[in-house]
Design brief:
By secondary structure, the protein is mainly α. It contains 19 helices and two strands. Helix 4 runs antiparallel to helix 8, helix 10 packs antiparallel against helix 11 and helix 11 runs parallel beside helix 13. The radius of gyration is 23 Å and the shape is globular. Keywords: Acyltransferase, Membrane, Transferase, Transmembrane, Transmembrane helix.
Length: 443
């Protein structure tokens, strides 16, 4: 699947480094839909010390909602555009690739530390207070699974300098090659029955949509309605005639998931979503420039990571009180009781989220630090350690045991490596090299 390019290229993004209100809207809108979906789809009941979970989107044809509500492709696209704009701004200011990586790595990993600080001891505390073991283990595992996104996004960030160079040289051919490789992976996965092969698409699919963000930042994505129709049309054909399920999220009991690992069907839906968003770019930008909307975007943009990391914790709080504590099950999805109770459920979750937001939003911004002066090897080691920690939480969660402690330690050590010692005072012998530039670490 290739990106549709108009020649001459249609300018859709600012030529100079700076914020793009369209990308800001996509990021906030994407995060809002992620939270809304996670809060709306659980079907919960509690009996005999065990919590039973289901998915409201598995009811009837509700899976069709996921073709819009599964916005992770749109989030990676917006992230690609934001990374391209940020990187070029750094280059324009004279920054280096390791210094840019250090800043992005701190912003990505620092907010995870308070999550780990709360969730590492919390399961032990809940068990000591008499909470049933199975609900505690379920919540502890799910609280960490959310970090899959940060682990994959970290790879995209680390590869941004290289992928931007490829973008400058080959343009739309880069996501096209990634898409073709994803097709080959799916063919091998379904042809051989070896599910493990499909996990190669974690890199290929998400890097492909991230790369489309680079093309947008260059102003090289044109004909958005053709993109939308091509993407959604291809996805419909793959679902109708291929081995792919209709839902773009994993469903209970489904033999195949389009999400874990991602498939070409999800990539096609993502392509369609990006085209649809670009087709509406004009009204979206005009809407974003309204003073009230602009203030809301600014407020939400500084809290997106906190909302993402903690919104499932808010769900666990309400579930523990209503479902486990009071024994009230959620209504059958699609019934009048479910529809009438849904706004009240969301209100309770928002009220539970508010103190978490007030408490932890301060960690969105890492502590002030001197510009990173270490080398690329050190910053790549830091990225690898943070990635290992995030992957540990993704697989294990915060279930009691040594693994989550190891994951938190890896993230902490990785973050420490992103900080440099304060620069020497001007005039000292260590302040400059023979060429007059700042001294860099030899690693």
């Amino acid at each position: 699947m290739t990106a549709v390019i108009s020649r001459p290229a249609v300018r859709t993004a600012p030529a100079s480094p700076g914020r793009d209100p369209f990308i800001d809207v996509l990021r906030v809108f994407g995060m809002a839909l992620v939270v809304l979906q996670h809060w709306s789809m659980p079907v919960l009941s509690f009996a005999e010390g065990r919590i039973v979970t289901g998915n409201a989107l598995a009811t009837g044809n509700a899976w069709m909602i996921t073709w819009i509500s599964q916005v992770m492709p749109l989030v990676f696209f917006a992230g690609g555009a934001a990374n391209a704009i940020s990187w070029r701004g750094s280059v324009w200011r004279g920054g280096t690739p390791p210094a840019w990586m250090a800043v992005r790595l701190r912003r990505l990993a620092w907010p995870v530390l308070p999550l780990a600080a709360v969730w590492l001891p919390l399961p032990h505390l809940l068990l000591r207070l008499g909470m049933p073991e199975q609900p505690v283990e379920t919540a502890s595992r799910l609280a960490g699974q959310l970090l899959w996104f940060l682990a994959v996004y970290l790879v995209a960030v680390a590869m941004t300098p290289l992928m931007l160079r490829l973008n400058m040289r080959y343009g739309w051919r880069v996501p096209a090659v990634l898409a073709v490789a994803a097709v080959a992976v799916d063919a091998a996965r379904f042809g051989t029955g070896l599910e493990v092969i499909g996990f190669l698409n974690i890199g290929l699919v998400w890097l492909a949509v991230h790369q489309l963000g680079f093309l947008y930042a260059d102003g090289r994505l044109g004909r958005p309605w053709i993109m939308a129709l091509t993407g959604y049309g291809l996805a419909a054909a793959l679902v109708a005639f291929g081995p792919y399920p209709g839902s773009m999220i994993g469903m209970p009991g489904a033999a195949v998931s389009n999400m874990a690992p991602p498939t070409v069907a999800l990539l096609a839906v993502g392509f369609g979503q990006i085209g649809l968003a670009l087709a509406l770019r004009g009204p979206i930008v005009a809407f974003a420039r309204w003073p009230g909307v602009s203030r809301v975007l600014g407020w939400a943009g500084r809290r997106m990571m906190t909302v993402y990391l903690w919104h499932m914790s808010a769900l666990f709080v309400i579930t523990s009180v209503v479902v486990v504590g009071l024994g009230v099950s959620t209504p059958e999805p699609g019934t009048s009781a479910w529809l009438s109770g849904w706004p009240h459920w969301l209100l309770m979750l928002a009220l539970a989220m508010w103190p978490l937001l007030r408490s932890f939003a301060r960690f969105e911004e890492p502590p002030a630090a001197s510009p990173y002066t270490g080398g690329m090897v050190r910053i790549m080691v830091a990225a690898a350690l943070v990635g290992v920690g995030l992957l540990t939480f993704t697989v294990i969660g915060f279930v009691p045991g040594p693994a989550p402690v190891f994951g938190a330690g890896a993230i902490l050590v990785g973050l420490v490596l992103t900080w440099s010692a304060p620069a020497p005072r001007p005039g000292t012998s260590e302040a400059v090299t023979s060429s007059g530039g700042p001294r860099r670490a030899l690693d």
